[in-house]
Amino acid sequence: MAPIRKLLIANRGEIASRIIATARRMDIATVAIYSDSDADAPYVKEADEAVALAGNAPSQTYLRDDLIIAAALRTGCDAIHPGYGFLSENAPFASACAKAGLIFVGPAPNVIASMGSKILAKELMAAAGVPVLSGITIADDEELKSDIGDEAGRTVGYPLLVKAAFGGGGRGMRAVNNPNELIHAIASARREAESAFGNGTVFLEHYVESPRHIEVQIFADTHGNAVHLFERECSIQRRYQKIIEEAPSMAVTDDLRAELGAAAVKAAQAIGYVGAGTVEFVMGTDGKFFFLEVNTRLQVEHPVTEAITSLDLVALQLGVAEGIALPPAVLNASIRGWAIEARLYAEDVTAGFLPSSGTLVKFEIPTFAGLRVDSGVAEGSKVDIHYDPMLAKVIAYGSTRDEARRLLARALSKAKIHGVISNRDLLVAILREDDFAGGAIDTGYLVRHNPIELIASTHSPEIIAIHCLAASLADQATRRRDAKVQISLPSGWRNVQNGPQRQRWAIGNQELEVSYRFGRNGLQAQVDDSSFGEIVLFCASATQVDLAIAGVRHRIEIHRVGQTCYVDSALGTCALVEVPRFPEPDSRDAPGSLLAPMPGVVLRVLAAIGQEVPAGAPIVVLEAMKMEHTVRAPAAGTIQALHIKSGQAVDVGFVLAVMEGGQ
Question: Measured between alpha carbons, how far is 204 from 119 in angstroms, rounded to an integer?
Fold first, then answer.
């Protein structure tokens, strides 16, 4: 093959930036593609050229193989790198690239097709001698048998997993504990799989108790070389999606590593694999492992492998695509040190991991030695409902696991992420939790450790009160700074002593009132009915408050945007919304209103006006960031009004329906 001189990246966000960075070092020109909402994304500016794809939905843009290939040909590209997700594991797209004379940076179309079906993949692996779990396949258009629950119990056994046959990332996956749950789980998984992957075929597979999710990085070239680059531990998951990954795994001994690596290489050789890929296994507490799937692409978590091997996997992908043999550094790779990656998502953990959207008014992650940040956003970036909510991957490397763990926790705890709700606090809490620190993890970690309780365990009980006071003092300093008259008078001065100055703040569903007074004895303050006692105020400005409470000094940073104050200190971070002193009289929603818990698109309306529904009945199904969310009746009642229809986009807080008796 000829050298690649110009590369189109058929993806977006952080992985597009990641590929561009390596291509630049290899003197390969790059072309980005972008949707309407991605027009100002960092990766678009980083590429040498960019081509617009009109629209926002993936079906209009990043899944349009015809538009992507046309963009590559129009800009004179030699090759296309698909990244991960979207068309990265789409065999017809790989074939279309070849027909257009473009190099597809990935395995051959027939290999992608064979692994794209988890059912066929399991059959091939079983024939190759790779351990697999038994299961039942239910085709896209197959009518469910009335006794499917009993058959699954006999053939597979409960608990079991319903899994999308085409695709991954936890979408189209449901855990089922008994026959009564199965039909609903299959229907839901089918809909989600159809929406995400265009095929609703699912299969049922036995659920291994307390499993670890272990995957092995493989690499193969066109010269007959096939190797593994060791394992990654991916057991910390929410909704079957990974959030923390590491390499190597504490649960894998040298002997087990050799077994896993041999099985992964055997899998690669059985299908004639070429390029970078990942063989995923589920592993029980006894060390026995079973094949899950082969991801025929680069993985999100590839940086941890790069960290412990000092290899650039994207550069190796491009080299293999050019026909170059894998170098000795790959064939003789070894493990050095430890790496842990955390996926920073725009999501509200306390609301059940609902995706969050908005504009990042500040996005800062500190720079430490041993820390790497792969980000698809920057300050000013908009996070919307159309794509995966991942903001960045933060990767820490150290000589030991504990060194990497502590570095990553510190970096995340000092990050400033303003404008969207993120999972940052949960990531920090996990990294600092004793079981995680000791390596006692499996895919049920976030079932045993309640995420909300994890977050609460790391927060000082004083944080909200102190941050509310600091926000009020910063506001007061701003008012004095901007005063046009009587600028020499102290804050809150009256010629007849009056009550304290007051300000109300909301955080989540909680409201707090700050009252404070500057007097001869200094600053006196309280939040609601709780007094702070002795306060020494060293300085207060619009952006920083330095004060000591009961002898403990706190330096607090304030970032005010509209009615919201983002407050950061060593205690943690808060987003406080100022409560209007005189709210609009008509601002309250009607009693019984069902509000959209997140921005999204209405998939289905499951109730009708006048219908009586029991508590917990599904009313509306929303889709946001590739996930379904069902809005249910909070209590029994009658549907009085519906303000939505299928396909309608709604923002958070939008009144979806009104119920009588549903307050």
Answer: 10
What tokens does 150 get?
A: 């009993």
Cα–Cα distance between 392 and 345 in angstroms, integer? 7
Alpha-carbon distance of 467 to 571, in angstroms, equals: 9
Spatial distance between the Cα atoms of 556 and 475, rounded to a whole number of angstroms: 13
Closest CA to 300 of 335, 250, 341: 341
Residues 6+ apart with CB under 8 A from 186: 138, 144, 148, 162, 174, 202
For 639, the enclosing helix (H) or strand (E) is: strand 637-642
3-state secondary structure of 119: helix
Q: Give kind and range of the element (H or E) at residue 531.
A: strand 530-531
pTM beyond 0.90: the answer is: no
Q: Does 297 qualify as catalytic in the annotation?
A: yes
Q: Where are the beta strands (DSSP E) in 139-223?
A: 160-164, 174-176, 202-206, 212-220
CA distance linking residue 63 with residue 88, whole number of Å: 10
Tokens 């409902």, located at residue: 385
- The candidate with the shortest Cα–Cα distance to 573, out of 561, 556, 560, is 556
Give, in order, the Cα–Cα distances in Å from 160 to each of 2, 134, 203, 286: 48, 11, 10, 19
- The three-class DSSP label of residue 181 is helix
Secondary structure element (H or E) that encloses residue 272, with its range? none
**Residue whose structure tokens are 């092995």:** 216
Residue pair 389/347 in contact by the 8 Å Cβ criterion: yes
In Å, how far are 49, 123, 228, 323 from 265, measured between CA atoms? 38, 17, 6, 20
Average pLDDT for consecutive 10-residue bins of the chain (663 residues)?
A: 93 98 98 97 98 94 97 98 96 98 97 88 92 86 87 88 76 84 89 78 85 97 98 94 97 98 97 97 94 95 98 98 98 98 96 90 97 97 90 98 98 97 97 97 96 90 94 93 64 60 92 91 91 93 96 96 96 94 62 83 89 90 78 90 88 88 56
Out of 18, 257, 297, 405, pick the active-site residue: 297
Q: Which of 496, 501, 494, 531 is nearest to 517 (CA)?
A: 501
Residue count (the chain): 663
Taken in order 464, 469, 472, 477, the sign of the CA dihedral is negative
